[in-house]
Amino acid sequence: MTSAYKAKICGTTNVEDAEMAAREGADFFGVVVEVDFSPRSLTIDAAKPLFSSPPLPPVALVYNMASTRVETLIQQLNPFAVQFLSLAEASFVTYLKNTYPRVEVWQSVHLPQAGETVDVENFQKTVQISVTAGVDALLFDTAALSKGEMKFGGTGVTSDWDIVKKLMDSMRGTVPIWLAGGINPDNVGEAIDKINPYGIDLCSGVEATRGKKDAAKLRSLMTTIRGKGLK
């Protein structure tokens, strides 16, 4: 039996952690590539070992990367998908889908952390633009201020799940929608029960230290995910 819910282990910095994610039953692993604010970021060259013979489909995460550099990344790493942490221009999404049809395009969309105001109408419009442009998946994540700098991805902070559910419900049936932001082994069951996402995407929630995964946390997480909605 397999779980009805997918799991992506993000912020992977080494081959050993990618293999660990595969052993524990994850579906994808993510690698942050040339993102200045991320302590888990790798250069394209440093990321090559993770993409050369991956144990799972690898996803390359980028933020405000120049279009020519994105193409270099695709050509050198051959990722399963490119995930944009910043909002990708609709025309560029369409271009990538036409030029590199074997590479999926995933778009992160960031909500403020719980307790902050959300412009629901504007958020829905932004998401719809991405869907119309042709993205293959959406990831609802949390933006958070850390040390005076706004960070997108790997924040370990949750947003308001009631609002997330409302937004996700309005977009169901368009593309697969993942939930990210502050997920860990202790709250993943609640997140699945409340939101019913296509999949769970997380990074810091299964780390031993920054950039290094914890086998026990990863096993606990995947045990819960596999136990939800078995088919």
Structure explained in plain terms:
The chain is an alpha/beta fold and 231 residues long. The chain has one domain: TIM Barrel, CATH 3.20.20. It has eight helices and eleven strands. Helix 3 links the parallel strand 3 and strand 4. The longest helix has 14 residues, at 120-133.
CATH topology heading: TIM Barrel
Rg, Cα atoms, Å: 16 Å
What structural class is derived from the secondary structure elements?
Answer: alpha/beta
Biggest sheet: strand arrangement: 1-2-3-4-5-6-8-9
From the coordinates shown, what is the CATH architecture? Answer: Alpha-Beta Barrel
Q: What's the structural domain tally?
A: 1
Low-confidence stretches: none
Instruction: Summarize the main sheet.
Output: 8 strands, parallel, barrel
Order of helices and strands: EHEHEHEHEHEEHEHEEEH
Q: Give me the count of strands.
A: 11
Assign an overall shape.
globular
| Strand composition percent | 15-25%
What is the CATH superfamily?
Aldolase class I
Distance from first to last alpha carbon: 6 Å
Average pLDDT score: 89
The number of helical runs is 8
